[in-house]
Amino acid sequence: MSGIPSWEGFRVKKVPTSDSKSPKQEVGDREQTVYVEVCKICRKPLAENLIVCSRCGHYVCEEHCKIYQMATLCHLCIVEIAGVDKRCFKVLYGFVHEYGKRRIKKAGKFTDAEFESVLSKLATAKMIERKSFLGLFEMIDATSLALETMPVLESIYDNELETDVGDFIYKLGQSGALLGNIGKISITPKAMLFFGVSIEALGIISYVSARLSNSDGSLGLLAAALGFLLFLFGAVSRKRGAGK
Asked: In what order do the strands lie in the sheet with 31-37?
């Protein structure tokens, strides 16, 4: 009887895996490991019709894969290739739907530093184009690549609509009517400094002229004060930008 193997103490262990390169099973002296195919993203067991991401080689369910750039890719790989994570998606969504910079920042509760970081990532990914006019005004447009990619990204982040992405889109839609290209133009800190100094100078000149002609110079003083505040705001904004 000593030549008959004993199954006492032998156990079968099931291990979930999304790696398509994993073996179906491994058998040791006292243990058998059976690998169960699961989706890389949701970890749902996959019984049949196994789909493998062309980029990472992992199993993925139908819900979490898309045809992108003529290949079947999982959502995570698409996000990495496009260079658009959740924060970038929010900002890009705003520009694709022609909302202004200030409105997008407010809906997403972005700080100046966070927003600038996202803009840099989107520009690197060639999803937006930043146009400057004499350094005084800036316009940001979504590129043709962004317009082509947005439907895929929207379907990927569709599962997040009950959470912060959905909340962002709701707040963006509650911001009021779109202003088209006018709403996308933003004034730069340099422009604030320029207009602030100009308005302040005109206000002072108006006040001095009014006093010389024995007239009320209160409007000139008010203009000078407003110009100074605009200059001060521009200086603070420029300092914040330099500190990023």
From this structure: 11-17, 31-37, 25-27
CATH architecture observed for domain 83-187: Orthogonal Bundle (1.10)
Q: How do residues 16-43 score in pLDDT, each as one tens digit?
A: 888 888 877 777 667 777 888 899 999 9
The model carries a pTM of 0.65
User: In the chain, which ranges are continuous DSSP H helix?
Assistant: 75-82, 86-96, 101-108, 112-124, 144-156, 164-173, 180-184, 189-212, 218-242
Q: For residue 216, is pLDDT > 90?
A: no
Distance CA 199, CA 202 (A): 5
- Residue pair 191/213 in contact by the 8 Å Cβ criterion: no
pLDDT in tens, 162-182: 578 888 888 888 755 444 444
Question: Domain residue spans in the chain?
Answer: 11-67, 83-187, 189-242
Angle between helices 112-124 and 101-108 (to 10 degrees): 120
| Strand duo 51-52 + 31-37: pairing | unpaired
Angle formed at CA 15 by CA 62 and CA 21, multiple of 5 degrees: 60
